[in-house]
Write a structure and sequence with these properties.
Layout (H helix, E strand, L loop, with lengths): L2 H12 L8 H8 L2 H25 L15 H13 L3 H9 L1 H24 L2 H24 L10 H27 L15 H12 L1
Helix pairs in contact: 1-3, 3-6, 3-8, 4-6, 4-7, 5-6, 7-8
């Protein structure tokens, strides 16, 4: 794929949230709990990530300043908080009932993708793995809860849809756990410092003198 084609696809992905202005598509995605949580919500930060790449290409601000986002901690924490907030069933219900909350959801997820791109690139492997692993654990816990609960956690969705979404969340958690592991394993390691094979003659004489004293 050529560079121009890649940039074009990145630009289209960055503008993806605009498609949610089309009511039939929005209703299709949010009419199913599985599509809502496993398609729409992940695509929004992916779109923000692409938007960050577009902004960075044009040398525009595309993330938090380094001074407040040392090692990417603040950006990763922000993305984690956004994910935790919108895993709450009542927040999903509220986003379907209130247009203001709905667009706040779109904006928060999209912005988390923009911030996450810059923070991910400047974060240490262990820090990134911690936050991604924490998100994976949260998704797996929510997925098990959605499957085991016999009552509807979201008023807008049926129990059967809730169980399907729970299975999907567990799969997504496994993907994120693999990503966290890969980030740590694939990180370049600093070269080991080789010890000196022998002391120089002067150093040996000084050492012997110190021992005699």
């Amino acid at each position: 794929m050529s560079t121009a084609s890649r940039r074009g696809l990145t630009g289209l992905l960055a503008a993806l949230p605009l498609l949610l202005l089309w009511a039939p598509l929005r209703q299709l995605l949010e009419g199913s709990m599985a599509l809502h949580m496993l398609v729409e919500l992940p695509l929004l930060p992916a779109s923000g990530w692409a938007a960050g790449a577009v902004l960075a290409h044009h040398r525009l601000p595309a993330g938090l300043p380094c001074r407040v986002d040392a090692h990417g901690v603040l950006g990763l924490a922000f993305a984690s908080c956004v994910g935790a907030l919108w895993m709450i069933p009542s927040m999903l219900d509220l986003s379907l009932l209130d247009a203001g909350v709905q667009w706040a959801k779109y904006g928060a997820w999209w912005l988390s993708g923009v911030v996450l791109r810059a923070s991910w690139r400047r974060s240490e492997p262990e820090i990134a793995a911690f936050f991604v692993g924490n998100m994976a654990w949260m998704l797996a816990t929510a997925g098990l809860l959605y499957q085991d609960e016999e009552q509807r956690l979201c008023v807008s969705y049926l129990v059967d849809e809730q169980a399907v979404a729970g299975k999907g969340l567990i799969v997504l958690a496994l993907v994120l756990a693999g990503l966290a592991l890969h980030r740590v394993v694939a990180a370049p390691r600093p070269a080991a410092i080789q010890p000196r094979e022998r002391l120089t003659p002067d150093a040996g004489e000084r050492t012997s003198g110190m021992i005699r004293r």
